[in-house]
Amino acid sequence: MAEGASGPVTGEPGSRAAVLGSPIAHSLSPVLHRAAYAAMGLDTWSYEAIECGEDGLAALLDGLGPEWAGLSLTMPLKRVALDLVDSVSDLAVRVGGANTIVLRDGRRHGDNTDVHGIEAALTEAGLKAPPSALVLGGGATAASALAALARLGTSEAVLAARTPERAAGAAEVGERFGLAVRVVPLDRVAAHLPADLVVSTLPGRAADALAEPVAASGASLFDVVYAPWPTALAAAVERAGGTVVGGFAMLLHQAVRQVALMTGREDVPVAAMRAAGEAELARRA
């Protein structure tokens, strides 16, 4: 695998793209990408959802023809993808995962737009450079959150995980970006409040028990969950008057960057993508 930060080789892309992962049926990515294509006049472009696990990614990539422009990757494919591309951005290497593969001129370029998605979501909510942060969870999304916080100017963070030893990889990512990271058990979160910003990368209702302590601390919240919304944690912080950013904003902005990478265009229609995504979430609710 060739490593480089300059991006994919230039050339005309194909017109077919997809999101891969397992499970993938409820992905919102097709709605977002198709809305972008429609607003950009890319009438020949298509975007689909394909069920694919780690063991099937290599064969799927080998079977793609020149009509393919790119792939979005969800769990559990982000790490294994690093070994299946011809080049990879420095950011994806440092974070330890690629959620995007750009296909051009017969080559595969891996990139990471998750970090950008988090940065953009926090920035548009006025939460750029929180002095201190408490991150809940120790997986790949927590690693991306730590990288984004460091790039925004945060200098230190506490990483709270149910099994602290399993959070070592995420902590290392944060430290790689210059953050001072301290890992603590999730059941001791209250001892590490208040923090300027709490980032929850926990799934579903896993953070419900922390709703009142976090809300009472006066912290702002970024919760990566986007459905069902609001979570108990988000609702509690909103009632307390705190700023809340949901996972849809992250999903939207990482998709915006993916569309730019795959199409080679910068005039990506954020408003159209946001409207389509919000409408679909309302339909599903």
TrEMBL record:
* UniProt keywords, alphabetically: Amino-acid biosynthesis, Aromatic amino acid biosynthesis, Oxidoreductase
Tell me the ranges covered by the Saccharopine dehydrogenase NADP binding domain, including all copies: 134-245
Q: Where is the SDH C-terminal domain?
A: 247-276
Q: What class of enzyme is it?
A: oxidoreductase
> What is a GO molecular function of this protein?
shikimate 3-dehydrogenase (NADP+) activity
Q: What is its EC number?
A: 1.1.1.25
Give the Shikimate dehydrogenase substrate binding N-terminal domain ranges: 19-101
Q: In which pathway does it act?
A: Metabolic intermediate biosynthesis; chorismate biosynthesis; chorismate from D-erythrose 4-phosphate and phosphoenolpyruvate: step 4/7
**One Pfam family from the UniProt entry?**
SDH_C
Specify the protein name.
Shikimate dehydrogenase
Write down the species: Actinomadura chokoriensis
Which lineage do the record's taxonomy fields give for this organism? Bacteria, Bacillati, Actinomycetota, Actinomycetes, Streptosporangiales
